[in-house]
Every structure is written in C-alpha cells, then in structure tokens.
Amino acid sequence: MKARTADGAPKEVYLSFVSSLFDNRKTLFTGMVVHILTYFVVYHKTQDPIFILLSLAFAAIFANRIYWFRRFTNVDKSRWTLDDIRSWELRYVLGAASTAAILGIGSGYSILAYEDTFVELACISVTMASMVSIVGRNYGSSLAVNLQSLACCVPIIIGALFANDPYKMLLSVMLVPFMLTTQAMAKGVREFLYENVIASREMKKIAGSFDTALNNMTHGLIMLDTERRIQVINRKACQLLHLGDRERLKGCDLDVALRYGVRHTFVDGSMPDLIQKQLTQLVDGSLSRAVMAFSDDLVLEFSANRRPEGGVVLIFEDVTARAQAERRILHMVRFDALTGLPQRSYFGELVRERIEQEQEAVSTGFLLLDVDGFKHVNDMKGYATGDRLLVAIGKRLMQVAPGDIVGHLVGDQFVVFASSGEGGEALIERLRGIHADLGGTYEIDDTTFRISFNAGCLILEQGALADEWQIKLDLALFESKSRGSGILTVFAEEMDARYVERQKLKDDLREALENRALSVVYQPMFTADGSRIACCEALARWNHPGKGFIPPNIFIQIAEEMGVVREVTHFVIEQACRDAARWPEGVGVSVNLSVQDLRDDGILAVVRKALAETGLRASRLHLEVTESSLIEELATVRDILEELRRWGITIAIDDFGTGFSSLSYLDSLPADVVKIDRSFVRDIGEDSRRLKLLHGIVHLSRQLDLQIVIEGVETEEQLALINRHRCADLIQGYVYAMPQSATDIMDLVERTKKRGRGRMHVA
Ligand code: C2E
Ligand code: MG
Ligand code: MG
C-alpha cells in the first residue's frame, strides 16, 4: 500500500506541498531585508538596543533558513519516507515560526514600551505584511500557517492588552478574527490545491494507462481532426507506416506524413492514385473499410470511424500475409500448376475482359487443340515425360500465339482465343497457322516426339460470347477426331444438329439394348484355298426403327461414349456362343471386344458364363482386340488375355497395322492370331510396294508363330496374289462370303464341306 499522511494525502502530494514551502527564496530574501532594515531604522529612532538584537536575530535565522533551503534543493528525495518529509517540514516551520515570533515580539514590545506612532507603525506593518504573505508562501503546511499566525498575533495582542489603552485593547480583539481568517484562507488554498493535485495525478494516471494501451495495440491507430491533421497516433501505426517520432507527427497533415513514411515502398516514390482515393473516401465517410496495397510486402486493412465532434479514427492492421496467401490461392485456382497457363474458368474471364476491351475487333475466335495419341506417350514413356511434353507444348503455344490468350483446359487440351481487325477468314487462317506451328517435333528426355494436334475452331459473331462456346469447340474437335489426326475443323451449325441427332441416337440405343433389339450376323473366315470355314466373326447389327441399318462402327462408338459398350459385348458373346454351339465342331466363332471391356476383369465372368450356359468349348471361341485397347492399360489387359488363353480361348489382334504399336512390340502381346487390316490389301494389285509391305508383315508375324488372317479381301485378283505369296492362313472378305445369319452359316458350312477341296464363292 502506498504511504499516506494522517489526513490521507499520498506521500507524493505531501512532498509536493512541503517542496512548495522551500520554493521562492526571493520573497524570503526580500522579507528579511525589509525586516532588518525596519528594525534598524526603529533602533535609530529609539536607540533601544533590543531592536538591534532583534535585527541580528532576523539575520541569524535567515542564514540558517537559507542553509536548509539549499540542502533541500540538493538532497535526493526519491527515497524519502513520510518521516523524512515531516522532519523537513518541521525544519521549515521552525525557521518560519521563529521569524514570525520575532516580528510578533517586536510589535508587542513597541506597543507596550513606546507611545511612538512611527515605532508602532513600523513594527506592526512589517508584521502584518508578513501575515498577509503567510497564505501565499505557506499554504503547503497548516502547522506553518498556524504557528506563524499565532507567533505574529499573540505578542501584539498581549502588548495591546497591557498597554492600558481601551482602543488598543479593542484592536487586539480584532486581531483574533484576522488571525483565524488567515488560517482559514490557507486551509482553503491548501484543500483546493490538494484536490487539483489529486485530480491531475488521476488524469496523468489515466493518460498513462491510455497511452500504454494505445501503444500496445496490435492495430495501428490514427485520430485525425477535421482538417486531416494527426491528433493521436500510436506506436504500431508508426511502425506499419514507417513513420518517425510519434511526438513530432502530432498536428502533421496525414498525407504529408504518409508521403514521407511509406514513400520508399512506392515504385516512383509518389502515392498511387488508388491509395490516395481510398484514404480520401475513408476520411470523408464514403468508405468504412479498405484494403490498401502499399507494396507487395505491405498490405494494410483500414477501417474508419467518424467522431461525433468531427474528424475520424483510422484503425488498421497488417494483412500482408493474408493477402499474399490469398494471392497464392488465387494463382493456384487461376493457373494450371503444370504449364502455368490459365485454367478453364480464368481463361473464360480473360476472354470476357478482352472482348470488352476490344470492341473494335472485327472478328474473334477460339482454337481448341488436343494432342493426338497423348495417352500413348504416357503409357510408353511414363507420366513424368508426358507432363514435360505438356509443359513444352504450353511454352511453344505461347510463342506461336503471341498476344493471344492461351489456356490449358484439361489433360492434353489447350485453347487459344484470338482477335483480328480483319474478317473471319483471315482469323481462321491465322489460327490454322498456330495449329500448324504447334505441331512438329518435341525433344523430351532425349526422345524425339512427332506431335500432331486435332483441333476445333470457332469464329464468334461479332462481340458475342455465348456460354456454349465450349460445346461448339468440343463438337468441332470431335469432328476432327472422328476424321483422323492432325485435323482442324471449323465449327459449322450443322455440327450442332449432328450433335443433337447423336444425342437422340444415344437414347434410341439405350432403348434398343433394353429391348434386346440388336442382332448378330457372322462373316466366315475361310482357309486360304476356300475349302473350309475355320471360324466366323460375329458382327453386331442394329436395325433402327426409323433410320434403318446403323453401321456398327457408328453405334459401337456411341455405346463407348455412353459407357454401355459392355452390354453390347455381353449380348454378342452370349448370342455368338449359343449360335456356334449349334454349328459343326470344327467351326469357331470370333467376337470383337472393345477397349472398355478390357479395363477390368469383369469380362472373364461374362465369357465363363456364356461358355457354361451354351456348352461351347473354349477352344472354339476367339476374341478380337484392337491394338489401341492393348495400349490403353497394357498390364491389366495382358493379365486378362493370358487368363483367357489359359482357358483355351484364341486371342486375335484385330485391324493390325492401323494403330500405334505396329511391329515393334508384336512379340510381347499375348495373342495367337493377327488379323491384318484391309487397308493393306486394298491396293496390292496396283502397287507392288503395298504387296511387299503386306508380305513383310506376314513374314514377321509367322516368325512370331502367329496365325494370319487377312481381312477385307474383295477381288479374285487380291485373293490370287495373297495365295501366290502364301500370305494368309485364313481369309475373310467379300470375295468368299458376306456377313450372314447363324442359320445361313450352318448351310454354308455344309455346302463347303460337300464341295471339299477347291475354292467356292458365296454371295
Ligand atoms: P472388324 O472387326 O474389322 O470387322 C470387319 C469389318 O469388315 C465388318 O464390318 C465387315 O463387314 C467388314 N468386311 C468384311 N469383309 C470385307 C470386305 O471384303 N470389304 C470391306 N470393305 N469390308 C469388309 P462391319 O460389320 O461394318 O463392322 C465394322 C466394325 O465394327 C468391326 O470391324 C468392328 O470393329 C466393329 N464391330 C462390329 N461388331 C462389333 C461388336 O459386336 N463389338 C465390337 N466391339 N465391335 C464390333
Ligand atoms: Mg473384328
Ligand atoms: Mg478387323
């Protein structure tokens, strides 16, 4: 607990009162000179040595008091206790009361001993003058006031009472209220000062706490007056805004302070317009919150509160880390991590912005690019190489389409948005140029890739960006893909119609599958001399109720798109096994599998069930897979095919020579038969090089112990050439037989058997 005096005053207040007693030595000195001079003059007039003695007493006391005054000034008061302060008060009171007592005694003596007006007047007037000054000098100590006033008045009263003069007696009585009034006045002054000292101490304390709180805030705070001048600013604000000494900023214009503070963070040293505008809005009340980016490393969030008496309080915090994190997240959302190009939605935003900016552009358009056979790259070289290829493509695209907006959509698809001051045709030409330039060779990980792109192109009606731009581009790309590779197709409205038509066809196919409305026909594979039917290929047929016969390469593709091709396969396997079971023992049946059938081993159960239910021996069942399905998931596919072979099923590679794999990994495939695509047969009559090529493939396949089926043999000439060069083990083609029903196959088998050796033609 803090030390207090008996009347409850804190030590510091008590000390300040006692200190006030020792102040103002000038008045003390003046008083003393006046006292000594007066008493000297009185002595001169009266020749009474008592006045000389009193003068000397004044001087001695004065010397003593001056000594203590000096000591008081120089002594260290910081550790003083209440007792120390009290002893100093007593020292003062002793000196002051002694002086007062001499004055009182001198006055009383002059009244008693002299009937001289001058002597009485001189002594009493200096005493009364001292009395008057008691309040001014001694309010800090009630003891000093009381003792001095008593010491002054009591000897005068005594002198007056004993003077034998009724008027003087009356005067002595009147001195009593004077004395009491002096004491009361001093008390009043002391109490008034005491209250004020206490109040100002409290205020100082509050101001100190407020200052501490202000300077320990985690937020910056600036209080502005109506003229935008700084009234209050805390330490954090100075730190955040790089401002100097807090005290010097008071009264300073905010703009000026900021310009000197955060100036170095601005690129050209001047405050950016946006920040200037935001500050003005905060101050004038039109904005209550604002995030201000002074630099990449200094982002502050301000909030403004208007003060009822005018002016504003700005509170702000450092949100740099948050802003940087937001920027990073935004970047991640906007840009593809691999290629660094804008992603789909941000690409769309950029395009919209560009269209708004370039109102005068005559034509605008998109180019959607899809890497041909990208999956092949991934499967053959691994995903890391695939990724590097995409990065290289992205880089080249930026180079070949400077000034255009380039984006990375998904996987291996890139997109370009371009505008032109010329017409649509010129723009298409430019986009064709980009398509051509992007293709070519890429060197990745010491491997040279020859890359081509299928592309869709869309030219927009002037300035209009409808939401379906992506669908239209996809349709154009789809068109390119269905025609081959390295093709660019410009979107045309009929593609939309075709798309709608295709969607309708999907619904119809779903219905056909539900109603088991598909059928199966069979095309025989004859021995080369045509003497025997070894196997028949099952071919699915769909007779659409409205559109008639739909070719299988169309509806199978649709079924693959819809993800229902397994149902087609399931249906065909079941039907083919059932039909073949009724055929003579030596005739097998061959069923086409789709890529999707080989994605997991579900096909095994389907085959096992079909064989079990129909009783067909596994050795009579052949399954045809295309090269592309082998490439897709090579490891899984290999496992499935090996399992099927273990059961005795024959595996054939269909359409050989049209895919990617070609001869290079033929030996690693789990296959028994190679069905050489009809494209190798088509020109063998006219072009001897084609025949050599066919011969070469056949030779290699034989080396690998693969049985050879030549597909699509249409003419006698082709047949003769194939046989002359012993190219085929089996022949499938219109030259021998068209696809036909299961019952017709039975007849055909019978007729072929009856004819025996020698070739026959069956329409
Ligand atoms: P593919 O497996 O290569 O079947 C052979 C195709 O060649 C059949 O066409 C057949 O009619 C045709 N063809 C046979 N000989 C000749 C000929 O001498 N000249 C010409 N120009 N063509 C000949 P189709 O039936 O139109 O089938 C086309 C493709 O549809 C098939 O090619 C096969 O890839 C697919 N496909 C047919 N049925 C199914 C099925 O049940 N499942 C699956 N996944 N695909 C099937
Ligand atoms: Mg086939
Ligand atoms: Mg084929």
Task: Provide a short characterization of the protein structure.
It is built from 26 helices and 21 strands. It is an alpha/beta fold and 763 residues long. It starts with 10 loop residues before the first helix and ends in an 8-residue tail after the last helix.
Overall description:
With about 775 residues, the chain is of the alpha/beta class. The chain is about 55% helix and about 15% strand. The protein has 26 helices and 21 strands. The strands form four sheets. An eight-stranded mixed barrel has the order 13-14-16-17-18-19-20-21, surrounded by five helices. A five-stranded antiparallel beta sheet has the order 2-1-5-4-3, sandwiched between helices. α5 packs antiparallel against α6 (about 140-160) and α6 packs antiparallel against α7. The longest helix has about 50 residues, at about 165-215. The mean pLDDT is about 90. The protein binds ligand C2E and magnesium ion (2 copies). The site of one magnesium ion has 4 residues, from β18.
